Each structure stands twice: as C-alpha cells, then as structure tokens.
Amino acid sequence: MKLTVMTSDEQFITLDVDPDESVENLKALLEVETRVPLQHQQLLIDGNVMLNSKKLTALGIKDGDLISMHKHVPASPPSNDLSLNPDGSAVNPGAFQQQLRQDSNLMTQLLQNDPELAQAVLGSDLNTLQQLLRERHQQRSELRRKQEEEMALLDADPFDVEAQRKIEAAIRQKGIDENWAAALEHNPEAFARVVMLYVDMEVNGVPLKAFVDSGAQSTIISKSCAERCGLLRLLDERYKGVAHGVGQSEILGRIHVAPIKIGNVFYHCSFVVLDSPNMEFLFGLDMLRKHQCIIDLKDNVLRVGGGEVSVPFLQEKDIPSRFLDEERYSKNDAASASEASGTREKNISSVPAGGQSSGVARSGSTQGPDYEAKVTKLVELGFERGAVIEALRLFNGNEEMAASYLFGG
Fold it and tell me: Which PROSITE patterns match (predicted)?
C-alpha cells in the first residue's frame, strides 16, 4: 500500500510499504529518504504517536493515509554518576557520594574494611573524598604492578643473575612487609609521635615549660629567656666561646647560680647561656644528677630530691606548638653545649676575657702553653693521641702522672 508522509518542513514523501511492516522499519525507510536518524523521528497518525513495535495494520493504517513526521531529539541519557577519572577520582563527586550513601550494603562493607574512606563518604568534604579515592587507586595500581612483577619472576630463567637479584629483593621486601604488618598489630604505638618530656618550672620567679633531657650534659637557657627571667645581668662572659657538636652555637657565658622552683620547693641551678633563638630552657643531666632526679615514666612524673617533689610531665595539648617544632633544634643546641660520654663526642672551647682557656662543660682545662708539647712527648712513647689527651685531662695536665697512668693501663 502507498502512504504519504509529511515532514516537519512540509515536504511530502510517498512510500510503497507492506501493510504488515512495523513502524520501526517504516522509520528506517524514511531515514534513507530524509537523512533524519531513526531515533530522532516521531511519526503520528491522526495526532497519535506510532510506537516502533506496532505494525501498520494494527494501527488501522490504510492505503493512501497521511502520516506526519516530526524531528524528535531525545534527552541524553543521564551520565554515570559512579564513573571515575583515570586518576581514580569521581567524575561527579557529589553524585558519587550520594550513590554510595544510598547503598547500605556497600556502606557496611566500607565501614568494616576501610573506615577512613567510609567517614569521607559520610562527611561533607568532597576534596578529602577525592583525595582518598586517588590514594586508593594508586594503592591498587601499585598492588597490580607488584603482582605482575611476581608473575614475571616466576616465568624468568632461574639461572639468570638479574632474575635472581630481583627474586632476592622480592623475598626481602616480603619480609619487611610482614614485619611492618606485625608491628601494626602488636606494636602500633611505634608509629605514633613521641612527645618529649616537659614540666612546669619557675626560673627566678618566671613560669617556664622546661624540656627535660637526660642526654644533655649541661642545663641550657637561651639569651632571650635569661633576659626575661632577669638573669642576664649575672652572665659571666669569661666563659663565652663556641660549642661544636651536632650543631654549632655561640656560648655567651654562664650564670653560676639562680633559684628554680619545681613543685613547691626551690633549688639552686646553674646554666650555660646560648645565643639560640630555637630553644628556651633545657634541664640537663648536670642538674638532674645534682638534685637526684628520677624520670618516672610509669607514673609519668619527674621526681626531684630523691622523691620529695613530684611534678607531672606535660601532655601534648599543654605544650605550645612552637616547642614541638623546636625540639630538634633543642637537641642540636644541647649536643653542642655539652660534652657527653660514649659515642657522642663534643669539642667545646670557651675563651675567657683574659685569653686563657677555661672549659664550659669540663671540670678543668689542661690546655696551657706547653700542652701540645706534652701531648707530642707522650705520643712519641707509643701511646694513642686520644688516650694521651684523656690522661692529661684526668690529671689536670700533670705529665708524669699521666705517663704513669698510661704505662699502668
């Protein structure tokens, strides 16, 4: 039968079709004639839309009927809200978050297997969610890469030197990973930040937060702190010099005695004064020994005077943030200003105003005008230079007693 089709631009097209043809096939014929894609066509008969699945006879269409065709561009299908970018982040993070929230089973699995990501999904910060998605994608990529490398090693020639080296590295890394996993399970606190030991003290009536460090031989105060405590007027500049150690700091001198208050008790304390803006006050081993202090980590207190006074170590929230950032500087300054035993070797020179040497951390100086001559003479007897210097230091530069000590050793 013949049908006449009127297009949207009022053109008439005559087609010869079978009465049992489907509407979809009729649209296919019209696509050839009009160049309008099948999915963009909408056919109407007597104002009613003709469905693709219907046959022409079922719609009551007869020979010579007029059919109208309109261009109909369907709305684009909704984008996949769960799709991801190549870096693992969500294309539409807001919709992605909503989709996950609505899936109760998936959220239950996330809370069990990845609580951090689950909290990001339940939170309101999309940037954090995107960052975690990128991290998880990177972790999965790294895992796949390692698995591929392991498979490649299985297929490699076992007698190849390079393959053996890679297998050895893989076995070693596996041991490290297992050790790390065991530490996470049995020793998780090892991965946490260790807060250094601080206590509340008063120096000359001024409240301070003192850094307790048994690894520093001398008690140290900075110039600015000494000035704030009203002690700079007592500075003995005869003991100024340069401290060499892990770092290097200028020694401005010593304050020989000043009152400090720990708990409710006053004690006498001496200080090395450093020109160091990176630390304030460090309570070192010299005063810890003098006042018979006990660092009690079980009860988290510093006991002074053999236990007559106990002051608690400060919690992290009670320590100013600048102190936490400056701990590494304090350690360097402490190492520079103190002479420690064992592997921590220091070289501290302090030059008094009169020009003669006077040790800051040493009990007595052996470096006189003929000091080097004594060292050379004893070294010529067959002793090591370090042992000679130590012997002269022990006997305050007495060459004969140092020699007897060396021969007796």
Answer: UBA, UBIQUITIN_2
